[in-house]
Specification:
Layout lengths: L6 E3 L2 E3 L5 E5 L6 E6 L3 H18 L4 H17 L1 H12 L3 H20 L5 E5 L3 E9 L2 E5 L5 H14 L3 E5 L6 H11 L7 E3 L6 H7 L5 E5 L2 H10 L6 E5 L4 E5 L5 H12 L10 E7 L3 H13 L19 H16 L3 E4 L14 E4 L6 H4 L6 E7 L2 H8 L4 E2 L1 E5 L3 H8 L6 E4 L14 E2 L2 E2 L4 H6 L2 E9 L1
Parallel strand pairs: 7-8, 7-10, 8-9, 10-11, 12-13, 12-18, 13-16, 15-16, 18-19
Antiparallel strand pairs: 1-2, 3-4, 5-6, 6-22, 11-21, 14-15, 17-20
Helix pairs in contact: 2-4, 2-6, 3-4, 3-6, 4-5, 9-10
The protein binds nicotinamide-adenine-dinucleotide.
Length: about 475
């Protein structure tokens, strides 16, 4: 395939029936590439082709599937730098972080490719044997967001294929290019129709939820869109994994060593310019170390080099799109109007590019929108507390629950606090560490279902129990 970014249907690359749309670089506003604008008829063609491919793909042996997927992963490894440059161009993150995204994708892909699918023996007595088998579901649609476009696509697609499903990928139209590249590589090693991709400016998501030929949707994105996916998937009872928004809290207890933990807190809050589902987004600090923590964080913020992710020395890129930039800017303006102190940043940067410097907001009340809403960008509110119970209540006062953390020199104390946080993953003296062999998912309005590990793989299967009368 050339760099024309077509759609892949039944193993064939074709132009979008509705023409093409521009993918823009958030640092320069230049057009990176044109991408196919598919029609709903083309989506249905992909669904038909995927169902046809599934008929034989589901019966390929585990060894064959592992071999094909590993061959594709070898090709990803060879093209690592090319993919990373594409991620910087469409998403904005600095090149070293984009390399990390591809390397992370490779690590997750290798893990998924090597996973075994267990047969559970429930009973094996003289007269009967009962086994629980796992079968693929059919056609899985993967709908992905714009923040980690390549890695999240890997998280969805690789385990779905490993389990024996055919997959249709639908990336965000803001960042489709690195996902097209991933699909191109996978398609080089898989039978026609086992992997497809449809890109489009609008209508693709609702087409997927409405299609009777799609059996599961794995969705990562915002809570409102996830709710819409759930509502619209009822007709054929699609299975769903919903990885939705978060608003992660961290509670820092008085015994913490501020100098030691401030760099880790900054790194996890501003990972990918804060555009990370499991980034630390609300920091509750005990009053005895509050000023020291605010000073340490704003000092680190001022040292960041903001700019185009391809430029040497830049470690802080743009926000990916204008809507997100305006959301962050508006939340910070509102905080200022409420009397909060801006210790670093706090204004959009002039000139070309969606740039917003890392912003530390102090002396802010818990009910401010910057605290209560997911800012998903480079602005961190730091809230003062005097009592542990009050801090836990504030941490649990939002309707989402992805990750949370407690920080203290006393690990037992921190663990006791972390265990009371309403979230899918709780951390002690760290935040947002993920790995392929550990299940990850949210509670409350952050969604349901998990990714990674055996639990994540099994979400792409249904159970078939077999009773054998001996
Ligand atoms: P979004 O919800 O706007 O879009 C996500 C995807 O859904 C895109 O591909 C979009 O085109 C598609 N879509 C839009 N309307 C649809 C519809 N009606 N039906 C089906 N699909 C539709 O999210 P975003 O702005 O791209 O991403 C940011 C959000 O994603 C944040 O809230 C963030 O917390 C969340 N997120 C969560 C996780 C997690 O693991 N929990 C990871 C990354 C991002």
């Amino acid at each position: 395939m050339s760099d024309s970014y077509k759609v892949l249907i039944g193993g064939q690359w074709v132009d979008g029936a509705n023409g093409a749309f521009d993918v823009k670089n958030p640092a320069t506003f230049e057009t990176v590439a044109k991408c196919a604008n598919a029609s709903s008829d083309q989506l249905e063609e992909a669904v038909v082709a995927a169902n046809e491919a599934f008929k034989s793909w589901q019966y390929t042996s585990h060894e064959e599937r592992k071999k094909m997927l590993n061959a594709a992963i070898d090709e990803i490894q060879e093209k690592r730098d090319e993919i990373a440059a594409l991620i910087v161009a469409e998403q904005g993150k600095p090149f070293p972080l984009a390399i990390g995204e591809v390397e992370g994708g490779i690590a997750w892909a290798r893990y998924a490719a090597s996973q075994d699918i267990p047969v559970q023996i429930i009973e094996d007595s003289e007269k009967k044997r009962i086994e629980a088998h796992r079968k693929p579901l059919g056609v899985v649609a993967s709908i992905t967001p714009w923040n980690w476009p390549f890695m999240i696509a890997v998280w969805h697609i690789l385990p779905a294929l490993r389990a024996g499903n055919a997959v249709i990928s639908k990336p965000s139209s803001l960042t489709p290019l690195s996902t097209v590249k991933l699909v191109e590589i996978l398609n080089n090693h898989l039978p026609d129709g086992v992997i497809s991709i449809v890109t489009g400016e609008r209508g693709m998501g609702s087409g997927i939820t409405g299609s009777a030929g799609i059996h599961k949707i794995v969705f990562t994105g915002s809570t409102p869109t996830g709710q819409s996916v759930m509502r619209n998937s009822a007709d054929n009872l699609k299975r769903l994994t919903l990885e939705l928004g978060g608003n992660d809290a961290a509670i820092v207890m008085p015994s913490s060593n501020v100098e030691q933990i401030a760099p880790a807190i900054f790194a996890t809050s501003f990972l990918n310019m804060g555009q990370t589902c499991g980034a630390l987004k609300r920091l509750y600090v005990h009053e005895s170390i509050y000023d020291e923590m605010c000073a340490a964080l704003s000092e680190i913020a001022k040292q960041q080099v903001v700019g185009n992710g391809m430029d040497e020395g830049v470690n802080f890129g743009p926000v990916q799109n204008a809507d997100q930039l305006n959301l962050v800017a508006d939340l910070v303006e509102d905080a200022k109007a409420r009397g909060a102190s801006i210790l670093s940043g706090g204004e959009k940067m002039a000139g070309v590019g969606h740039f917003y410097p890392p912003t530390i907001v102090a002396n802010i009340e818990n009910d401010a929108p910057l605290v209560q809403e997911e800012q998903f960008g480079p602005a961190l509110p730091v809230i003062k507390f005097s009592d542990k119970e009050e801090a836990i209540a504030m941490a649990n006062s939002v309707d989402v629950g992805l990750c949370g953390s407690a920080w203290s020199a006393d690990i037992e104390e921190a663990q006791a606090i972390a265990s009371r946080l309403e979230c899918g993953t709780a951390f002690v003296n760290t935040h947002a560490e993920i790995q392929p062999n550990v299940p990850f998912g949210g509670c409350k309005m952050s969604g349901f279902g998990v990714e990674f590990a055996e639990e994540g793989l099994l979400e792409f299967t249904s159970i078939q129990v077999m009773h054998i009368n001996k």
